[in-house]
UniProtKB/TrEMBL annotation:
Name of the protein this chain belongs to: Adenosylhomocysteinase
InterPro entries per the UniProt record, alphabetical: Adenosylhomocyst_ase-like_sf, Adenosylhomocysteinase-like, Ado_hCys_hydrolase_NAD-bd, NAD(P)-bd_dom_sf, S-Ado-L-homoCys_hydrolase_CS
Binding site for substrate: 57, 143, 205, 235, 239
Keyword Oxidoreductase: no
Gene name tied to this protein: ahcY
Length: 482
């Protein structure tokens, strides 16, 4: 990685390839490009300094360049050690007008296959604005909440005047965070407090990050307002579902190329992500089994025609296991020890704690072998082996390239609108967690219909009056569930 400049990517010479794929993606992201056109003259993000922590893919490059087109300055890191597409990162660092010899793009700190130390260093770099008074951003765009978490922990420990001892860390990753905060506290004891002082808010992309925000709100520790982008209908009911329907099997195919038809696949969790995953596996002819703790989702799965069972019922016989819960300890080491030879185990939930990788490594006699990056076999003493994808991290981004552009256009149109909303109407949002108004949600959907050749029916005024909604929308009450 190039360290002479204010960015760090794997290989700048990949920029031209990245730029070509960005151009293809722009055509497939009509919502995001329409927002670019709509606000080009107005420049609503002029003055915004946005720190982004979100998978550094081709689609994210289009998001970043949209934010820049609306006037923002941006610094970026990925939100997962395996999810960066190095050509996209290079293209963003070089910028549309720059060259690898003379880069002029956005400071991006991301490459595929970071260590945990590198990952948190990248997050710190994205949050640290060298040429500003506070040294920090005034907006955050987060996916999973890691940038928000680092900042909140930094501020909390600076208030305490001390960081918990590294020995108290509950995991490897926790240890890395504590070490980083020990370093910053020693170097600059008010770094995070100062850096956070002008932040107007955060817009959060995913279920797991949103969950963290509501927890902080309840504990009263949230430092600034947040927009929950995930729960826009045009985000979670599209990206989480149709995105995973596309990218789950893409990941399994690229990793293993195993025929999915006829196999028994267990999908743990039948929320938005689980629904998309189950459908994609069924589409390939797999016999899909669902595990759920929520009776409503379990009943939905049954009515959709899936067998609902417990993991223990299929742990010895299923061929493919996918976790989608956002919860921890879904597949334990003791479960993996019982699986059949060459069973495939993967996670598509945000964090890597759904599958007990640490426990797997501790099984006596178990041997880990790399087939290729992000594909490993684990062989037990009796010779049986299982195949684990992306070391238990989200496999659709680790083994494949994540969701395709069209669905991300919906998610990122919401992100962009949320950034504009929080940045330009800060006073309307006291500290708390908000979802975007339904009219904006409908707008995002509207922006994607033409590209699919869909003709929307126009509501007539008498009909609007009859069902009690405005002709221009919003068309549903807030409690409607889609
Ligand atoms: P969700 O809340 O709609 O679904 C999760 C489901 O898991 C719920 O129905 C819940 O009842 C179930 N569950 C919880 N504990 C369980 C257990 N022990 N056994 C079986 N089921 C259990 O959440 P959503 O939106 O589906 O997201 C799931 C995860 O995927 C989150 O971590 C989210 O951040 C992540 N995500 C990942 C994406 C990707 O591209 N890899 C895209 C979107 C979300």
């Amino acid at each position: 990685p190039d360290t002479a400049q204010d960015f760090k990517v794997a290989d700048l010479s990949l920029a031209a390839f990245g730029r070509k794929e960005i151009a293809l993606a722009e055509h497939e992201m009509p919502g995001l490009m329409a927002i670019r056109d709509e606000y080009a003259a107005e420049q609503p993000l002029a003055g915004a300094r946005i720190t982004g922590s979100l998978h550094m893919t081709v689609q994210t490059a289009v998001l970043i360049e949209t934010l820049v087109a609306l006037g923002a300055r941006v610094r970026w890191a990925s939100c997962n050690i395996f999810s960066t597409q190095d050509h996209a990162a290079a293209a963003v660092a070089v910028g549309p007008e720059g060259t690898p010899e003379n880069p002029g793009g956005v400071p991006v700190f991301a490459w595929k296959g970071e260590t945990l130390e590198e990952y948190w260093w990248c997050t710190e770099q994205a949050l640290t604005w060298p040429d500003t008074e506070t040294g920090g951003p005034n907006m955050i765009l987060d996916d999973g909440g890691d940038a928000t978490l680092l900042l909140h922990k930094g501020v909390e420990y600076e208030k305490d005047g001390e960081v918990p001892a590294v020995e108290t860390a509950e995991s490897d990753e926790h240890r890395v965070i504590l070490e980083l905060l020990h370093r910053t506290l020693a170097e600059s004891p008010r770094k995070w407090t100062q850096l956070a002082s002008e932040i107007r808010g955060v817009t959060e992309e995913t279920t797991t990050g949103v969950h963290r925000l509501y927890e902080m709100q309840q504990e009263g520790t949230l430092l600034f307002p947040a927009i929950n982008v995930n729960d826009a209908v045009t985000k979670s009911k599209f990206d989480n579902k149709y995105g995973c329907r596309h990218s789950l099997i893409d990941g399994i195919n690229r990793a293993t190329d195993v025929l999915i038809g006829g196999k028994v696949a267990v999908v743990c969790g039948y929320g938005d992500v689980g629904k998309g995953c189950a459908e994609s596996l069924r589409g390939q002819g797999a016999r899909v089994v669902i595990t759920e703790i929520d009776p409503i989702c379990a009943l939905q799965a049954a009515m959709d025609g899936y067998q609902v069972a417990r993991l223990e019922d299929f742990v010895e016989t299923a061929d493919i296991f996918i976790t989608t819960t956002g919860n921890k300890d879904i597949i334990l080491a003791s479960d993996m020890a019982r699986m059949k030879h060459q069973a495939i185990v993967g996670n598509i939930g945000h964090f890597d704690n759904e599958i007990d990788m640490a426990g797997l490594a501790q099984i006596p006699g178990v041997v880990r072998d790399e087939v290729k990056p992000q594909v490993h076999t684990w062989t037990f003493e009796d010779g049986r082996k299982i195949i684990v994808l992306s070391e238990g991290r989200l496999l659709n981004l680790g083994n494949a390239t994540g969701h395709p552009s069209f669905v991300m256009s919906n998610s990122f149109a919401n992100q962009t609108i949320a950034q504009i909303e929080l940045f330009t109407r800060t006073e309307a949002y006291p500290i708390g967690v908000y979802v975007l108004p339904k009219l904006l949600d409908e707008k995002v959907a509207r922006l994607h219909l033409d590209a699919l050749g869909a003709r929307l029916t126009e509501l007539r005024p008498e009909q609007a009056a009859y069902i009690g909604v405005p002709v221009q929308g919003p068309y549903k009450s807030d409690h409607y569930r889609y």
